[in-house]
Each structure stands twice: as structure tokens, then as C-alpha cells.
Amino acid sequence: MSNVRDFGAVGDGQVDDTRAIEHAIEAGDGVLEFPRGNYRITRTLRIELAGHGRLAVHGSGGVATLQMHAPGPALSIVGTHQQSADPQSFRPEVWQSERMPTLDALEIEGQHAEADGVRLEGIMQPVLTRLLIRRVRTALHLTGRARNVLISNCQIYHNTGVGVHLDQLNLHQVIVTGSHISYCRLGGIRIENSEIRNLQITGNDIEYNNNRTHEVPEADDVPAAEIYVDVGAQGTVREGTIVGNTIQATCSPGGANIRFIGDAAGGAAAGDHRTGMWTISGNLIGSQHVGIHLTAARGFAISGNYIYSGHHRNVLIERSSNIVLGPNCIGHNPDYGAQELATGIRFVDSENCSVTGLLVEDANAGQHTVDAAVPIVRDALIELVRCRRVNISGTQVLNPTPRGLWLEDCSDTLISGCTILDHRQPSQMQLAIDWRGDGSGNLIANSRIGKGSAGDIQCPAHVQVTGNCLS
Question: pTM of the full predicted structure?
Fold first, then answer.
């Protein structure tokens, strides 16, 4: 084990320890140990594994801090693996010298406006555990190529950029678990212009990742999200899970708790869905402009979540297909009493979708009653616009304002076995179902439908209505 103090590092936060640490990297045995202290560095500590060999960096249980006083990452670890995770694809020298670089129990603190935390490139089986990274731009930056990445039990806190940034990256097999990722201005976990497969985000607390705390002038409306995926011009992001997390925020204009964008900026041809094959399950999601926002996505199963307090919508699905929503519970946080936010689900230009087993209940007031919240503009609690082959079944729509369901220019759409009621006194529902525009092959059947001030069901002739209980 190579103790950086043995190579001349002082660790008092005043002396520049950069050269001493570089000496420990160059001449040490590959296990770099930082005893308790604040280690001032003034350039990136770059470690090229092909020449250095296997690497482990330890911060003595978290009592050591790297203070980065220069632009760029405090630690940059570079490998040369360019193949898959298949054991047959490894060059012997990569396995011998580069596999599983480990960073553990270390704090990295930015002391420069352009300081970053850790940058990984060309890495096989990196393990990052018990890191505290704060006051940098990007805390963890993965780029180039990587395989079998483990990020666990980390504290990624109050950074001016992104918490975990997968950027221009070819990556298979990555797990982010048991970590707290919060107060990062441009997002908690952000994926851009990358080819990603097999990504698991599980058991984390991901919250408040927007400009609210940083107060950068005129930056409140920069789109942010706790989990933000944008495929860009060439990327594809498939095969992932978001399970068992708390994903919360303060509202930012245009923000989302979870956002997937599956086509290039500026729009793409119909069917150009380059993100999908994801499950979102067992999470607590809320207090943003939109809870879950999918654009040009294909193949999402969203179930078992509590989704609450969306300032614009709880769920917004646009130009997407093969989406299963439910069962989920969509409502409010009762801790705030009368300070409620109206709820809502909206599908636009989407097809082959199923909404089943959902419980969605509106605010008692039928509108936002939170101070400074922008008034919600909506036609119903659940809205479908220009959609095809959508089934809504076994769903309870309670206390809707102004309507329970709004459908416009939809075809081959089925509403069955649902309950649409307003039990408030006095009732604020105008219509349970308001169906407008053109379409064909549509059906409303076997549902319990309450009567609003303007009636119960209003629909054109192309909608068949049968077997419902109306009152």
C-alpha cells in the first residue's frame, strides 16, 4: 500500500500536494492510500492503466479530501478496453493491467469554478464506492467506452453541473445503487448522445437537481431532471430499470423527475424511437413540473409507483408507443393539508398503449392551491389526443375537474371496467367522459360513470357505448 504521505504529501490544504501524489502514483504499488487530511491539487491526476497497472484508491474511510484547485477532473482514469464484456473479447494485457480500478471512501471537493470530480474512459469493471463529491461541475463523468460499471453508496451533493454524466459513451452493464444524488444543477443522472444497454438505477435518493439552490441568474428554465435521458443525434438507450428510488424535486420550468427523449432534437421521422425496453417501478416520484415525461419512446412498463404533485402533469407521454401505465397511485402529499397540486395524465400522438389498474385522484379544489404555482391548464384528469389502440381499463378516476377523461381524434380505443366519480360536495365534475373529433373502432363499456353538471358521457357516433352503470 502506497501512503501518499510517504511520498511527500502534506495534507494541510495549503501546500500543493500534486507532485507528491503523482510520485506516489508513478512509484507506488498500485494501492494509493490517503490518510486523514485535505490534499490540495492544482492539476488533474491522470492515471493511464495500460502503463500503470491495476489501481485502487482509498480515502481512509472518508476522512481524506482531494481539493481540486484547477479546471478539469481531480481524477482521470483511462483504459484501453474497446470490446464487449464477453470474456472472449479481452486482450490478456487488459485483464492483467486494467480490470476493476477501484475508488473508495474518498471526498473530492471543488475549489475552482471549472473543477470536476472523476472522469472514466475506456474502463472495464470500475468500482466506485463511498465517494463524497461536492462543489464541482460534473461529479462522475463516463465517456468513450465502459463495461460493467458499479457506482454504489456515494454522496453526490451540490454540484453546478451533473451528478452522474454518461456522455458520448458506449456502455453496457452499469448499476447505480444506494446513493444520494442531490442539488446538482443540470441533473442527477444525465445521459446524452450515448449508446447504453443494461442500466439499473435502484435504491437511490435522487432529489432537487435543478437551479433552485444554485440561483444562477436567468437559468431557472434550463431543462433539468433527476433522471434525464436524451439520445441526441445518434444515441440509443435501451434495457434499463428505475426501481425503488425516491425521485423528488422542487419545481423548475420545463423540468421533470424522469425524462426520456428518444429522438434527435428538432424532431424525427415517425417511429424513430431510440429509447425503450425500460421498467419504472416501485418509486416515489413527485414535486416537479412533470413527474414522468416520455417523448418518442417505445416499450416502457410503468407500475407500482406513487406519483404525486406534478405542477403541469404527473405523466406526459408524447409520440410514443407500446407504453404500459399501471397499476400506480397518483395523488398528493397529505402532509401539506390544503396546499395541493392538481393531477393529470396526458397522451399525445401515441399508440399501442395500456392504462390499467390506475388510481388517480384530483386535488379537492380541482386546481393548484400551492402559493406561486402556475395555474394548471387541462381538459381532464386523463387526456388522449390523436392516439390509436389505447386501452384504459380497471382504472379509478376520482374527483376530476373539469372532466374525468378527454379524448380527441382517437381510434381503436377502449374504455372498460373503470370508475369515474366525483364524491366532493358540491361536485365539480362537468362530464365524466368527453370524446370529440374523428375516429373509428372505439368503445366505452362496463364502467361505473358518475354524472357531472353537464352530463355523464358525450361522444360522437363512432364510439359504441354499452353496459355502463350511469348515475
Answer: 0.96
